[in-house]
Design a protein that fits this description.
The protein is an alpha+beta fold. The protein has three domains: about 180 residues, tt1808, chain A (Alpha-Beta Complex); about 55 residues; about 110 residues, no CATH class. The chain contains eleven helices and eleven strands. The strands form two sheets. It has a six-stranded mixed beta sheet with strand order 1-2-3-4-5-6. The longest helix has about 40 residues. The N terminus is likely disordered.
Length: about 375
Amino acid sequence: MATFEQTIRIIIPETMELKLKLEQLHQRVNGLKDQINTEEATKNAFVMPFIQILGYDIFNPTEVIPEHICDIGTKKGEKIDYVIKKNNEPILIFECKHWKENADAHNSQLHRYYHVSKARFGVLTNGTIYNFYSDLEKPNIMDEKPFLTIDIEDLKDSSIKILESFTKNEYNLEQILDSAEALKYIKAIRKEFEKEIENPSDELVKLLVNRFFDKPLTASRMATFKEYTKKALTTSINESISYRLKSALSINERLDKPDESKVNPIDENIDANKIVTTDEELDAFQIVKAILREKIPANRISPRDTQSYFGVLLDNNNRKPICRFHFNTSNKWVELFDKGKDSGEKTLLNSLDEIYGFRTQLHQTIANY
């Protein structure tokens, strides 16, 4: 007979379970940051829980080795913050910094440790950002750039899927190396693509324009077509994203099957073509969803975008607003309903992270319903 934990694993895919734990760690980090004043405290409060989330026993000194001595040439007594072993072989080394420090600023130190370590992967972290390195360029020499970055304040499903391969139960060296190589080149291509969107090169403009424009591309025409190309690329991408998001929202609404008598008829008459769901709105929604998961199942929290605001509803019911995001102006506002659904109060947001400060109000709103 399956245990409760085994049953949960069957119901919740490993990747989703890993994401939930990382979201909980994110909330922990946000709640403790201001009290963490040293590198050692960062390691204990943030990094060790991260290692534990990966499934390694932080209380087993043969599996997670703190302050591992790593002699480098004439330097004796150098220490790596953590070495992770599996089957008595080192697979991961961790170099940690205080959470206020830039995680990219100390890779030379990790580079030295990596050179004398038998591990194929090194992690440089400040407790919120985890940069994963390997030796894809030259054997036993750590690459200058990470192939994977996990930012617990900006979790991405694609990155979490790769991180799953580093967990104790799923660790697979060959699979990770294949993924690492793919990620490396995908990131490089994406970077070049983003540069082309921001400032199209002459080569790209010529490649596209010569397919339909049979006149010489003079300097003035090239400048004009560069602007046209930038606008065309940006518009195409934005429309594609908007279409996919609206499709996802539509599917969500059909699955939830709301009571038609409870739907505000005003929302039904909105011209959907004028609604553009932004990445910031979706990020804000995910933050609210993570906060409310402490009280209710995720499938009871629904997004509803309109022309004037992005709303979050309970049970996909317009009569049960949880909060609204007004991101359509230069200033960003969150509207809360903890004092009643007809008593929305707006608060200015300087950053999306400030949403975590409204946990009490959001929980109270759910309790009111």
